[in-house]
Design goal:
It contains four helices and seven strands; from the N terminus they run αββββαβαβαβ. The chain is of the alpha/beta class. Strands 1-2-3-4-5-6-7 form a seven-stranded mixed sheet. Strand 6, helix 4 and strand 7 form a beta-alpha-beta unit. It is globular and about 55 Å long.
């Protein structure tokens, strides 16, 4: 599942990495659904919704809602009014946070994520896609602002929602 044009991109990427490996006679069929930003798709009782982020290339955020829990993933890029609406009331948002304080057109700093709590009323925030040299400072700044409601997950970590 992805935004417009992502199906073809994924097929080309798989072919580049694993030539011929994903032909129908070699593996299970890959079913791909392209979802327009602002629309939703329901599969197996789970609702998937998307919104466009602010980034120089097309990137989309995703909301996954099973009527008990809601998890959102920012994708790459900064918050937009559409992503704030998409994330509203989420139990967990996984959001990119490249910088402690630096401003960028494509990536978020810690303080720029405050609207997730103030306007979107999210419960918890996992910060990912962090600049390696700023990870510790990002973690400290996030802890100062939001306490245990925000953290930088580590590889293999499991989060109960």
């Amino acid at each position: 599942m992805g935004g417009p044009g992502s199906s073809q991109f994924l097929r080309e990427l798989l072919e580049l990495g694993y030539p011929g490996s994903f032909r129908p006679e070699k593996c299970f069929a890959i079913e791909f659904t392209e979802v327009e930003p602002g629309s939703s798709v329901e599969r197996y009782g789970v609702k998937f919704s998307t919104a466009r982020t602010q980034h120089r290339v097309a990137c989309h955020s995703l909301r996954i809602d099973d009527n008990r829990n809601t998890v959102c993933v920012s994708g790459d890029g900064k918050i937009t009014p559409e992503t704030l609406r998409l994330f509203h009331g989420a139990d967990l948002v996984v959001h990119e946070c490249q910088w402690v304080a630096r401003l960028s057109d494509d990536h978020s700093s810690v303080a720029e994520l405050q609207p997730l709590f103030d306007q979107a009323s999210i419960s918890r925030l996992a910060l990912v896609h962090c600049n390696h040299d700023e990870r510790q400072a990002i973690a400290e700044r996030a802890a100062n602002l939001w306490g245990k409601r925000a953290w930088l997950p580590i590889a293999g970590e499991v989060c109960d929602v």
